[in-house]
Design a protein that fits this description.
The chain is mainly beta and about 725 residues long. The protein has 4 domains: about 190 residues, Jelly Rolls (Sandwich); about 150 residues, Sandwich (Jelly Rolls), CATH 2.60.120; about 250 residues, Beta Barrel (Thrombin, subunit H); about 80 residues, Immunoglobulin-like (Sandwich), CATH 2.60.40.1220. About 5% of the residues lie in helices and about 40% in strands. It contains 5 helices and 53 strands. The strands form 11 sheets. Strands 3, 15, 16, 17, 18, 19, 20 and 21 form an 8-stranded antiparallel beta sheet that branches. A hairpin with a 4-residue loop joins strand 8 and strand 9. The two termini are about 40 Å apart. About 5% of the residues have low confidence.
């Protein structure tokens, strides 16, 4: 959908991208391929429709009820710099080997490398130049003890491998490509996932909806798994009694058909929409490779140890656990249905014991929990291995499968953590040996945030549940003049978002929600300049800038740009981009959300003719706007997300979220008869005022159902509205 807001002509006149999988970034060298390059191309056999149909039937099958998601077909190959591809000499003192692999009709391709041992000083890139999708550079830092290396998917049916070696090293063969995985579904958003169902069903609930704020720590333990390049599952980073930050991830055994598949799996953190809407996330926070520690088919669990500890800007959280045998009186699962952005499902009722059986899993008696019916959300294919958590936020099970889907959210089965603990005495088939290495005998272990101080990072956005991202059009006298969020014909050169974070935060980077990206074939030099300003009411002092080439950005998705130096703004600051390096024939637009309600804050500011403007002040309707941006800031111990409140500045509601009472405070007297509480669909609710003082009122919320609510009350001659979450104890 596209919205347009018109602004009168008179008012107008008055008034480098970071790459995933712990890579080094950058772009491959340009190679002048004058000689014959026939050897540079390898074409996979045409993938038969019968093979795709068989995999799709397996995905759709309700016979075994397992919820792993097969999205690709594996071609076994043996390709290396001595038997394929082409070496080139460059003027940059590098020898460059290039090989392009084509697999017709593939939605994306991913590769599995064997004998992968890169020496210091070399660079490896993977890309599809036609679709501007680039991964790398990979270096010796990506070497594994297994000498295997799995990469995330590259969009389209063509992938180029480019290996850049200092000339003094000659033309070595430091790896071989062992497998080409042909994606027949569309795991990436580059093709907008046209084949249903390949994204989560509409009944799924995004993990960043306001009512799920209680689970903000736990969600950061959940990751998406691409296992051996062809199957998607979900997993959870989990704590152990030594609390030594060992990066164990627990998932389902049926996701790993072989133990060695752990070595060729990719684990993606923070793949989620920034707010309560199905906007594709950025999968850049990915790690490749792990070691299988324990695997037991009967209780359907697999415990792996990642090859690397997730770095601080991945915002990792190590989930706690409960190995008691009691039934949870309510349950939550966080997972990646269909490999899509992270979702949450909630059951407000008690689970039941069950004995789950499928074609490949034969539970011991009562080896699973049964969720009889989800009250919010659901699980789907790709959710396998996703964790089940009790109401104390402790891990209690892994998803095996079930009958639940959108339209009929019933009967899901989670293998019980309590039985996985030590049902088998074999250390390779139990969790106790690994998760209680000090033999403490603990039955419950709290989750752990190991990063503190300058290493503690969180994500911040001004988006709310009621926002709706779209490309907001700009018109003058009825004539289309481009977009408020990007390319335009009215002279807007910079677009920024206002943030407020109290403390001594440092900025790691910013994710932009790209709504429209059109580039001509000659647009390799298209750049935006990321800028950070200190300021209060308007941007004032430029404290950081960075040129970023926009090739490689994905449309209709979040795109993360990592800063390359320490950026420490004041409490109120502005982040955005300058458009002056975008070619005139090309289009670059970020999503925005237009806010027509009068008391909602504006956080969108723009620069035109060397002057800054507050969007709300320059449109006749006095609408507000928020840009679709998500900021990652670190060094935030004891800091909470503080949204901008323009008017009034001295109104508080707390605690938020609350489990019993809500307190309103204002610098003006509060008229208790003006206080109204509404649910998320606008129905006014009856509430009891516990204590009424001129500037402070306490509201009793006992008996209300969990969810998001709004409180509205008078302020001077107007009203103020604030949102809060109610989460009963």
């Amino acid at each position: 959908m596209r919205y347009t807001i018109t602004i009168f002509l008179c008012l107008l006149f008055i008034s480098t991208l970071s790459f995933g999988q712990l890579s080094s970034g950058g772009f491959p060298l340009q190679v002048n391929a004058l000689k014959s390059a026939e050897k540079q191309f390898v074409r996979m056999p045409i993938l038969k429709q019968s093979v795709i149909d068989e995999a799709m039937n397996r995905n759709a099958s309700t016979d075994n009820m397992l919820k792993a998601f097969k999205f690709a077909h594996a071609f076994e190959v043996d390709l290396n710099p001595t038997n394929s591809g082409q070496w080139y000499s460059t003027n940059a003192n590098y020898n460059v080997w290039k090989l392009t692999i084509e697999s017709k009709n593939a939605k994306s391709l991913n590769l599995i490398f064997h004998n992968f041992q890169l020496p210091d000083g070399v660079r490896l890139y993977l890309y599809n130049e036609k679709l501007n999708h680039y991964l790398g550079a990979f270096t010796s830092d990506n070497n594994k003890p297994s000498e295997k290396f799995a990469v995330a998917p590259v969009a389209g049916g063509e992938i180029t491998i480019q290996y850049e070696v200092p000339k003094a090293m000659g033309t070595p063969a430091d790896f071989k490509i062992a497998r080409v995985n042909h994606d027949f579904i569309g795991i990436l958003k580059f093709d907008r996932r046209p084949f249903s169902p390949t994204v989560a069903g509409d009944c799924n609930v995004d993990v960043n909806c306001d009512f799920a704020v209680r689970w903000n720590d736990i969600k950061n333990s959940v990751c998406r798994l691409i296992v051996d390049g062809d199957e998607v599952c979900s997993g959870t980073l989990i704590n152990n009694t030594s609390e030594d930050q060992t990066p164990y991830v627990i998932s389902a055994s049926h996701c790993y058909d072989k133990w060695e598949y752990a070595e060729t799996s990719v684990y993606t953190f923070n793949y989620e929409s920034p707010y309560c809407a199905p906007l594709d996330g950025d999968p850049m926070h990915s790690l490749s490779g792990s070691i299988m520690k324990a695997h037991f088919d009967s209780l359907d669990f697999a415990l792996v140890q990642l090859d690397e500890i997730p770095p601080p800007n991945f915002r990792p959280y190590y989930a706690g656990w409960n190995r008691l045998s009691s039934l949870p009186d309510s349950s939550v699962s966080i997972h990646h249905p269909w490999g899509d952005v992270k979702k949450i499902a909630l059951d407000y009722d008690e689970a039941a014991y069950a004995t789950f059986e499928s074609n490949s899993i034969k539970n011991p008696k009562n080896g699973s929990f049964e969720i009889k019916r989800w009250d919010e959300g659901v699980t789907e294919k790709g959710s396998s291995g996703g964790g089940l958590f009790d109401n104390k936020e402790n891990f209690i099970g892994t998803l095996s499968g079930g009958a639940a889907y959108c339209g009929n959210p019933v009967r899901d089965y989670f293998a019980r953590f309590a039985m996985q603990w030590d049902y088998s005495s074999d250390s390779t088939k139990q969790l106790k040996y690994w998760l209680d290495p000090i033999n403490s005998g603990q039955e419950i272990l709290d989750g752990k945030q190991f990063n503190t101080g300058e290493n503690l990072c969180k994500a911040f956005t001004n988006l709310t549940d009621f926002d709706e991202h779209t490309n907001v059009g700009l018109t003058v006298s009825g004539e289309d003049k481009g977009y408020w969020g990007g390319t335009n014909d009215v002279g807007i050169t910079e677009i920024v978002e206002r943030f407020h974070i109290s403390g001594n935060e440092s900025l790691d980077g910013i994710a932009l929600g790209i709504g429209k990206l059109v580039q001509s074939s000659s647009a390799s030099d298209n750049e935006i300049k990321i800028k950070v300003y200190d300021g209060d009411k308007m941007p004032e002092t430029l404290i950081y800038s960075k040129l970023v080439n926009i090739k490689g950005f994905a449309e209709d998705a979040m795109n993360y740009i990592e800063f390359d130096e320490t950026v420490e703004p004041q409490d109120t600051f502005f982040i955005g981009f300058e458009l002056t390096n975008i070619n005139t024939q090309d289009t670059f637009v970020i999503y925005q959300s237009l806010r027509s309600e009068q008391d909602l804050p504006n956080s969108f500011f723009y620069k035109k003719n060397s002057s800054w403007y507050n969007f709300k002040d320059t449109n006749p309707q006095a609408y507000s706007m928020v840009n679709v941006m998500e900021l990652v800031a670190c060094n935030i111990d004891n800091i909470t997300d503080t949204p901008i409140v323009e008017i009034p500045v001295n109104v508080l509601i707390y605690p938020n979220p609350t489990s019993s009472e809500l307190v309103l405070e204002s610098d003006n007297e509060i008229d208790p008869t003006s206080i109204s509480v509404y649910n998320i669909i606008g129905q006014e609710l009856s509430v009891y005022l516990l204590n009424v003082e001129p500037y402070r009122v306490r509201i009793n919320l006992d008996g209300k159902t969990p969810g998001v609510y709004f409180v509205r009350f008078n302020y001077d001659d107007s009203y103020v509205t604030r949102k809060f979450s109610f989460v009963p104890k």
